[in-house]
Amino acid sequence: MDTQWPRWEVFKQDTPAKPHQAVGSVHAVDPEHALLTARDVFARRPQAVSLWVAPASAIFSATKEELAEGQTPNAKRPEAPSVSEKYLIFRKTSHKRSMTFVDYVGELEATSPEDALKRAMERFTDAPALAWWVVPASSVTKSEDTPETVESWFAPAKDKTYKQQSYYGVVGSHVSKFKRPRGEEDE
């Protein structure tokens, strides 16, 4: 029996004009718990207007190297009938940003994660992809988009700006004020 709570990937949107980005993961018992934990961990200080969470086990991923070698990973889901469902597509295009992994690029209908990946590679061609994540939309839990939710969930963090350590100054005097120049002896 596994004693660890399931892992949920967290996607944060900084402003309405920016895409959701994978920022990390949390362990939680259910989607609501995952959203609340994600808010505490990933929206305490930085700007945010929306959070999404998805079970890590629901994410189908493939790297550029895997695709080049023809090693498309198998989806971790049982064989499903060929019924079309909505998938959210995420893509990594650069190694520049170390704090995020993939960006949301859109959604599409497909019959399987593999089919969704194939369609995504054909549709989202504006930038080369280093990695792809395909997530069934039914597995994603989103924070509400209402103004009240945005205000209560994300506005408090705006007043908690990050301050450099030097901002706080020194409590008491610096140790150098108590040092005597060399050569002076007690008299």
Strand count, sense and barrel status of the largest sheet are: 4 strands, antiparallel
Query: Pairing-aware structural class of the strands and helices?
Result: alpha+beta
Alpha-carbon distance between the two ends: 74 Å
- Helices, by number, come to 4
Query: How do the strands line up in the largest sheet?
Result: 2-1-3-8
Average pLDDT across residues? 85
What share of the residues does DSSP label as strand, in percent?
25-35%
Number of strands: 8
Give the proportion of residues in helices.
10-25%
Poorly predicted ranges: none
Describe this structure in words.
By secondary structure, this protein is of the alpha+beta class. The chain has one domain. 19% of the residues lie in helices and 26% in strands. The chain has 4 helices and 8 strands, in the order E-E-H-E-E-H-E-E-H-E-E-H. It has helices at 31-42, 64-68, 113-123, 147-154; strands spanning 7-13, 21-27, 50-55, 60-63, 85-92, 103-110, 131-136, 141-142. The strands form 2 sheets. The chain has a 4-stranded antiparallel beta sheet. The longest helix has 12 residues, at 31-42.
